Amino acid sequence: MKVLDWSPESDSFLKKKEIEIHNLYHGELAKNSFQKKEIFGRRSIKMRIRALKRLLRMTGHSTFTGKVLDAGAGDGWCSAYLLENYPSLEEIYTMEINENAIQSLIPKVIDTVNGDNEKVNLVRGSFNNIPLKNHFDYVITMGALDHSDNLYQSFKAIFDSLKDGGYFLAQEPFLRDTVSNDFYHNRGAETINFKGLVEVKNDDRTDIFYRLCEYRTAAYHAGFDIEVKDISLDRANWRRIFMNAVKGKTQTYNLVFCAHKPKAARPRVPTAWEE
Q1: Which terminal CB of the chain, N or C, has fewer other CB atoms within 10 Å?
Q2: For the chain, domain boundaries
Q3: pTM of the model
Q4: Whether the Cβ atoms of residue 33 and residue 104 lie closer than 8 Å to each other
Q5: Would you state the CATH architecture of domain 2-274?
Q6: 232: exposed, middle or buried (Cβ count in 10 Å: 0-12, 13-18, 19+)
């Protein structure tokens, strides 16, 4: 495995506290030993593997080939799964924002699977600052875009990193379009206990559950053609949805989207976001 540094600190949209708390959290996780059965036996990971297979079908492809960026990789489970199950992949770039994930946690997880580790590049980097252009056949995020502080900038950076005809595949949480801005203002003002490790105000980090319309709008203005499917009634999610509805909580849902970078760029009007 090779280690690359894309300097996430240079991303003006990435909050310093976001790096700090995830470095702390991933450092704690890295103290554990890992077994493949335990990693892929988690309910959340089983749901995401089903989502990944569904996304592959949405592309019309039978397998993953070429080069893939696993952005916001967390503990690296997705890269490990791809490495073992899709040997036709040429390279996997596994990207996280903090040192402990890249140096300690992700290598431990990847070492639990069978595959050619020389294909893996461990990258300390961010959504909005991807230096490789027209490089990837696929970019994948799995429950990561809620940590983007500017969804359009993330989509645009990912668009630019893809080859013409490439795909951005994601499984992400979302809120219904009817959720008001007050929800976000109130949530930002809350202080939470992050993973039982540290107290942090939400506005000092980034954990935004975007509305469905915001995903569609950001994808369109970045240049993508996008297909979105609501998978909230996946059997891994329906009980949580039901219980939150009973409690009257603002409900998060789950979607998958397949965003295609056209081989011939369609004309589009520049937006104020790009000025």
Answers
A1: C
A2: 2-274
A3: 0.91
A4: no
A5: 3-Layer(aba) Sandwich (3.40)
A6: middle
